[in-house]
Amino acid sequence: MNQKKIAMNIDTKADYIVIAFTGDLEYGMIEEIKSELQTLSLDTKHGYIIDMQKVTNIDSTGFGMIVNFAKKVSVKDKKIAIIVVDDFIRNLFAISQVDKVFPIAKSEEQARKIIKEDWLGELSLNDY
């Protein structure tokens, strides 16, 4: 039987923080990671890049974790961009309309540019 796994790596850059997820962001899998995100220091100049390049699946629990983290970040006037390269994951973002709340980038460089600019989504975080 294939054991599902999840991992999170945090990489602090000069003016932003990259949070890279690996595996399945699903119900029953993310409790420990959710706790780590809630205790993460918000000490960054521009904001956060959530790297989903190695995510194989995400459900409503995973999206909820990202949205809750974003609400915490927005209180500090920091921004979030999300890297999504996989078509399946990109479709899940579209179905859930999370792509209307957060900018979706194809690379860290593109995401870095986004968090330094003013990006307005179709939906506000509070309306989502």
Automatic annotation (TrEMBL):
> What does the record give as the organism's lineage?
Bacteria, Bacillati, Bacillota, Bacilli, Bacillales
Start and end residues of each STAS domain: 6-115
InterPro entries on file: STAS_dom (IPR002645), STAS_dom_sf (IPR036513)
Protein name per UniProt: Anti-sigma-factor antagonist
Q: Which Pfam families match?
A: STAS
